[in-house]
Here is the input.
Amino acid sequence: MSCAVPVWYAGSMRMLLLALLPALPLLPACADAFGDREAPELGAALGAFHVVGTQTANTCGEGALGAKRLWEFDVELARGDGALYWNNGASVIAGVIDDDEVSFSIDGRVVVDMRAGDAPPGPPCSVERRDRALGQLGGRGDDVAGFKATMSFEFVPTAGSRCEDLVAGELSVAPVVAALPCGMAYDLKAKRSALPPE
Here is the structure.
């Protein structure tokens, strides 16, 4: 799934691309990326979880895109038939639960137009952010006290994009990353902060 959001000032990239983190944890940049509708009843609610993420890798540069080494957010989870639903309060992301009933994966992507046509400050540039979470729930049933996961984000210019000025270097006007493509990863540890409503 993808969407495009016109942006005329490259510095806004931080909020557009990493307002994500809790959307998958994830995204005001593109509400449609993971659904912007009222969350339907999806399987058995597992409760609310407070998540602490520790950055383990970053090729985008220190502080690039607004990313921090320590990142905290809250999420609600629900379990369906072979599915895990991740609700960040603004959107619901559907993932997959493996046959072991604890291992899960969630994938998503969003495309953000950094500028359009020949509008200032440069040529067309759009960046695709690819998100992936792999983890394990702390139980097979509905009583899940926590979970652990790894979450990665990859940022790649789309075909035909000219994004050189966003990369630190001689051509940069408003650099926001050290390199493109680039990526970052987090180790996530979550504890249940609220039981599901009865």
About this structure: The longest helix spans residues 13-18. The two ends are 34 Å apart (CA to CA). DSSP finds one helix and eight strands in the chain.
